[in-house]
Amino acid sequence: MRLTVLGCAGSFPGPESACSAYLVEADGFRLLIDFGSGSLSALQRYAGIDAVDAILLTHLHCDHMLDACTYVVVRRYAPGGPMPPLPVYAPLGAAERISAAYSSENEPVDDVYTFYGLQPGTFPIGPFTVTADRVNHPIETYGVRVEHGGHVLAYSSDTAPCEPLLRLAQGADLFLCEASYLDGIPNPPDLHLTGGEAGEAATKADVRRLLLTHLVPAWGSEASTVEAACAAYAGPVEVVRPGARYDL
User: Fold this and answer.
1) Higher per-residue confidence, 167 vs 105
2) Is 63 helix (H, G, I), strand (E, B) or coil?
3) pLDDT tens digit string along 134-148?
């Protein structure tokens, strides 16, 4: 199983990165987890414009799904003819959300995507066993656990501290965890994690490696986020970058 980071900027594209998008590959199958604003460019750079076999959208905030709208053009108007409908696993309402963002006429996109409603539970996507659970964010949002060949990738999506996050991450080889907020200052509740809270979750879940993502460069210091995470978690800690690849 291989993870490729396409985009990792939090809330809006940064000067060096698109928003959240992560390509997970195994046995020739490519699952794109989230498709945030700007990440279609990175998909072409690090994988290929048609290098997607299924999409999972953890929630319907723009920084996690907006380029699924732009991708309609890629698949509908390909020079060789329309591409087959692509499976999309997402919260209910994703079809309407993408249609509204793609066209002011709310043009249907069911020729491009086949939608499957996310809900808590375990299910297959290609060769992967995926477990999804609701996490602590203002809209319906799912963290995910992806298993293949005895290895585990856990992804927090956007969340404040919560028990489902710990269950999803339990014993993971890689824990891809957001760390949007800074430690030591008042932050809005039930929205995002700090570096320290990401480290605490990694420790409680006994993960092997912590990958920090969804940092917002315009809001504060990456170094302080890493320092806070390392104070709470004794294992390896890294801030992900676009184009970074991790093999499990």
Assistant:
1) 167
2) helix
3) 999 999 999 999 999
Alpha-carbon distance of 94 to 96, in angstroms, equals: 5
What is the DSSP track for 94-161? HHHHHHHHH-TT----TTTEEEEE--SEEEEETTEEEEEEE-BSSS--EEEEEEETTEEEEE--S-BS
Domains and CATH numbers, the chain: 2-243 (3.60.15.10)
Q: What does the pLDDT read at residue 18?
A: 97
**pLDDT tens by residue, 214-230:** 999 888 789 999 999 99
pTM of this structure = 0.97
Q: Are 194 and 228 in contact (CB under 8 A)?
A: yes
What letter represents residue 124's amino acid?
Answer: P
Backbone angles phi, psi at 154, to 5 degrees: -115, 140
Token pair of 40 as six digits: 């279609």
Q: CA of 50: how far to CAs of 32, 54, 172, 176, in Å?
A: 11, 11, 29, 24
- Give CA–CA dist 176/165, Å, rounded: 11
Of 125, 124, 62, whose CA–CA distance to 94 is shortest? 62
How many CB atoms lie under 10 A from the CB of residue 59?
A: 23
Chain centre to alpha carbon of residue 106: 26
